[in-house]
Design a protein that fits this description.
The complex is a heterodimer. By secondary structure, chain A is of the alpha+beta class. Chain A has eight helices and nine strands. The chains are: A alpha+beta, B alpha+beta.
Chain lengths: 294, 670
């Protein structure tokens, strides 16, 4: 069991491992989002009857978590490694534990536990039951059996595993300052992302133009509705608009211009979009394809 | 007689649900067996992170035969009705008896049901039982038609040494289970009986019984702490939780870095407890928290736990850095400067901001302080600062430290220690086992806080209901009651009638344990105008002792008699008899005597009550017993002479009124 010595080794190891379990290795979705769950490969593919297995890295943006590069582990942009398996195989816990062995966490030397933690995303109208997985008292993954997405029952039920890559890498590399992580043997994480954290934090908290963002939110919301009320419903482009609106909301929230009561109302508006997209997806061919030339 | 062993093996069951799940499993299975006529000798249920187990002894291998009589239609009923009855009972007419109930003959079907093999009954019954288990939260999962708390992987069901075959949640029952996820060899373990099951699990690193896991944790922690000259800070809630997170608990001790030991121990302890589920240790000589923690792992690691301890220490460092950061940041601003920030925090939509609430508490605390002899200035100052810590980083992270942090920050700001203590203690008592605040300043703020909440929420119609008390008003009222009674504080509550009624209800609950009768509380409360709880309780207690005496019990009987007569006659005459008794119409010596003592008693009781000499007042009432008894012995109230009758009724009315000076006897039961 070789340790994943660098950040990119960790990613490569996980990709190789989950590819062996029959997962598609997809690439990040090209729209800003708060978590890997928002990737249509999870949100939409978790719905409907068709089997699905995918794994991918997703850059996750949480504007409010920006700390100008001053915090040992809190980032407004970080990487999640996401695995979705539909239906959840009955040995999915063992498969997951296998992945920990691959990256160098030997369950015979460490204390690995499944601690109740049910997951809910009010913006996606989604929830599931599961655990946070602890390794020696640290949360290394979130493990969820999806019950609903977009307010719709998931049938069959998918299993979702999310690894917080930076935190996991810090643990494996024994590093206490995220920017000191070895990205590979030559570059540190800080060389790649410190400046980004500093500048984006300033943008998130000080400079993001809230008038523009409010306008963008409305525009995305309007476009999303239009795409779902047209004669031919376009679930995928509509869903893009939905996640863009969600990101606008996150930025506005970071700028502190949304009050507590408004907050709930904005979340409800995004949820309405997400639900409508999910419903449209279920009415669509859901990715059906027959090879043209056999 | 044979034994039954059931195990439901699943993915990790939330710790908080395990104990109840075992109880529920037992209840459901026992209930279903009794419904089917079964008796058994003993039953025990167990739960842990991955399994629910039930072991039953002394269950018959054959279900008892049942003989059941079913009443049918009359023998002269229409043919159709009779046929319908025979069909539903599953018998023929010659299998029926006829019986006579005095009004005629009717059919009785005697149905004899042969008991079946217990194993067959179990196979049919158990899946239904399992499906009925009331999990607080359950889920669907692939391959299962029913919901369970987490995916189910195995079922052991052995009866009389044999597998009882059935299917539940997509799993077929059998005779094998599994051991510890990492410590066992992972191979299926075949079991037959409970005893070999427990032994096999132990060998596979699983301690079945939660209590045993708790004992191990308690014992190991105490031992390891002792070796370091330390002792465990007991935490029963945490112990319950961690015993549900490990099948093979192993206690390890880690170090807290010295740089964190300046942080208040409450912060360290709360952070370790809530985030990491660690136990805190202390030095028994100084009582101070030690720079060590105890973690309960689910793993006896090959390296003796070195990696695990190192990992946990590292995680804790990150956690405590966060906490220390908040603590350092928070102290850069005074509590005083934070009071204004409360304007931005809504307390309740109809009750305004936290700032407005603080202003009300401040005014009220001042008034209360004056009445109870506390320093008014200090009380107002403490009230002003009492909610300011809600805006601090530490309280934001750990809401349960509200008040405790306020005290630290107040002391840091150089506030007077009475004020700082009041900021901490004004939430007290937090529960029935918590002490009331001791300082007078703290008492004033604590009462003001609770009375403001009660008055405020009742005022906007947010009263507690049978099902819910979201603003913890019951606790607030109970807290105020305890502060007043335990501190013997003479303080008129000055609250609206509905809040006072609420206090009366809570008072009954609070005094129930002491054996104080709720009807006597009503009897005193219903006199009205009583909002001094100390005085009220003194009166109730005097009344209760009095009613325990012969004189008291007899006087109560006489009172009821008088009241019943009055009620009947008032109804008959459609008028009351409240007027003065005419001395010239008193004919018999017994009524003269009664009129005389009543006159004296009335004055004496009124004076005693006024002077709060309730025991003395009851003494006076005791003196009424003999003349009252004599009156009822010798005097006919409803005399033929209307004038005499009315005068006697007036005398009874006066007796009633006299007793009502002490309490409303009509509310007294018995």
């Amino acid at each position: 069991m070789a340790k994943a010595e660098t950040f990119q080794d960790l990613i490569l190891t996980l990709q190789t491992y989950w590819a062996k379990q029959g997962c598609l290795i997809l690439q990040p979705f090209d729209v800003e989002m708060g978590a890997g769950t928002f990737h249509p490969a999870t949100t939409l593919r978790a719905l409907g009857p068709k089997p699905w297995r995918a794994a991918y890295v997703q850059p996750s943006r949480r504007p409010k978590d920006g700390r100008y590069g001053d915090n040992p582990n809190r980032l407004q942009h970080y990487y999640q490694f996401q695995v979705i398996m539909k239906p959840a195989p009955s040995d999915i816990q063992d498969l997951y534990l296998g992945s920990l062995r691959e990256i160098g966490l030997d369950p015979k030397l460490h204390d690995i536990r499944f601690v109740e933690d049910d997951w809910e995303s009010p913006t996606l109208g989604a929830w599931g039951l599961g655990w946070e997985v602890w390794c020696d008292g640290m949360e290394v993954s979130q493990f969820t059996y999806f019950q609903q997405v977009g307010g719709i029952d998931c049938d069959p039920v998918s299993g979702e595993i999310t690894y917080g890559l930076e935190r996991l890498a810090m643990y494996v590399q024994d590093v206490e300052w995220v920017y000191d992580l070895k990205f590979n043997n030559q570059f540190r994480y800080g060389e790649v992302f410190l400046q980004n954290e500093q500048e984006q934090s300033a943008f998130n908290f000080e400079l993001a133009d809230t008038d523009i963002l409010f306008q963008h939110f409305k525009d995305y919301e309007k476009q999303c509705h239009e795409l779902l009320t047209a004669n031919k419903k376009l679930a995928l482009p509509a869903y893009d608009q939905c996640i863009k609106a969600s990101h606008c909301f996150n930025l506005l929230d970071a700028r502190g211009v949304i009050s507590v009561t408004e907050r709930a109302a904005y979340i409800a508006r995004v949820r309405t979009l997400a639900k409508a997209c999910c419903e449209a997806w279920l009415e669509s061919p859901m990715g059906d394809y027959k090879p043209r030339f056999g | 007689m044979a034994d039954l062993l059931i195990e439901l093996f699943s993915e990790e069951i939330p710790a908080r649900m395990q104990v109840q799940a075992a109880k529920d499993l037992e209840k459901v299975v026992v209930g279903a067996l009794s419904d089917r006529g079964f008796l058994f000798e003993g039953v025990r249920a167990f739960s842990g992170p991955r399994r629910l187990t039930l072991a039953m002894t002394g269950l018959a291998v054959q279900q008892p035969d049942v003989k059941e009589e079913k009443k049918g239609p009359r023998t002269n009923a229409p043919q159709k009705a009779i046929e319908g009855f025979l069909r539903s009972a599953g018998v023929t007419l010659d299998q029926c008896q006829t019986q006579n109930d005095g009004k005629g003959e009717f059919y009785v079907a005697v149905i004899e049901r042969k008991g079946r093999d217990t194993a067959a009954v179990l196979a049919e019954m158990l899946p239904e039982c399992f499906a009925k288990l009331p999990w607080p939260k359950s889920m669907r999962f692939p391959g299962s038609p029913v919901r369970w708390v987490r995916p189910l992987h195995g079922i052991v069901c052995m009866f009389d040494g044999e597998v009882v075959p059935f299917e539940f949640a997509g799993v077929t029952s059998g005779n094998t289970t599994r051991g510890h996820r990492f410590l066992s060899d992972g191979k299926p373990i075949a079991v037959r009986h409970f005893d070999d099951y427990v032994a096999a699990l132990e060998k596979a690193y699983v301690v079945l019984e939660a209590d045993k896991r708790k004992d191990i944790i308690r014992h190991e922690t105490t031992q390891k702490a002792f070796a370091l000259g330390l002792e465990l800070i007991a935490d029963e809630g945490l112990l319950n939780e961690v015993s549900g997170l490990a099948e093979w608990p192993v206690v390890l001790i880690g170090k807290i870095q010295d740089e964190f030991m300046d942080v208040p121990p409450e912060i360290l302890q709360t952070s370790m407890r809530t985030h990491q589920k660690y136990f805190s240790l202390r030095d028994p000589k100084t009582g101070k928290m030690a720079a060590r923690f105890a973690v309960v792992a689910n793993m006896a690691a090959e390296d003796g736990g070195k990696e695990i301890v190192a990992g946990n220490e590292r995680v804790l460092r990150a956690r405590l850095s966060d906490a220390k950061f908040f603590w350092d940041q928070d102290r850069k601003r005074t509590l005083e400067s934070r009071v204004d920030d409360l304007k931005a925090i809504v307390f309740h939509a109809k009750l305004g901001t936290q700032y407005e609430r603080v202003e009300r508490i401040e005014a009220l605390a001042g008034e209360i302080a004056e009445k109870i002899g506390a320093d008014v200035k200090k009380a107002k100052r403490a009230a002003r600062l009492c909610k300011a810590d809600l805006t601090t980083g530490v309280v934001g992270e750990f809401p349960e430290l509200q008040g405790i942090m306020g005290r630290y920050y107040a002391l840091h700001d150089g506030e007077d220690s009475d004020i700082a203590d009041a900021v901490r203690d004004h939430y007290k008592p937090v529960g029935p086992s918590d002490a009331i605040p001791t300082g007078k300043v703290a008492i004033a703020v604590a009462l003001a806080d609770k009375l403001d909440a009660l008055t405020g929420f009742f005022g906007v119609g947010e009263k507690p209901t049978g099902s819910g008390d979201p603003f913890a008003l019951r606790r607030a009222a109970l807290g105020a009651i305890r502060i007043l009674l335990e501190g013997k504080l003479r303080l008129p509550l000055k609250v609206s009638a509905d809040v006072l009624d609420f206090f009366a209800d809570r008072l009954k609950v609070a005094l129930r344990e002491k054996g104080t009768r709720h009807d006597l509380i009503d009897a005193v409360f219903s006199l009205g105008n009583e909002d001094d709880l100390v005085r009220l309780v003194a009166r109730v207690e005097a009344l209760q002792s009095f009613l325990k005496t012969d004189d008291g019990a007899n006087l109560l009987t006489a009172y009821k008699r008088a009241a019943n007569i009055l009620k009947a006659e008032e109804k008959k005459d459609k008028k009351t008899f409240d007027g003065a008794v005419d001395a010239s119409l008193l004919a018999l010596p017994e009524e003269k005597a009664l009129a005389e003592v009543l006159g004296a008693a009335e004055k004496a009781i009124a004076a005693d009550v006024q002077a709060e000499k309730f025991v003395e007042a009851m003494g006076v009432m005791a003196g009424l017993r003999k003349p009252v008894d004599a009156f009822f012995d010798k005097v006919t109230v409803n005399d033929k002479d209307a004038k005499l009758r009315e005068n006697r009724l007036k005398l009874l009315a006066r007796l009633r009124a006299t007793l009502h000076l002490a309490a409303d006897f009509s509310k007294i039961e018995g």
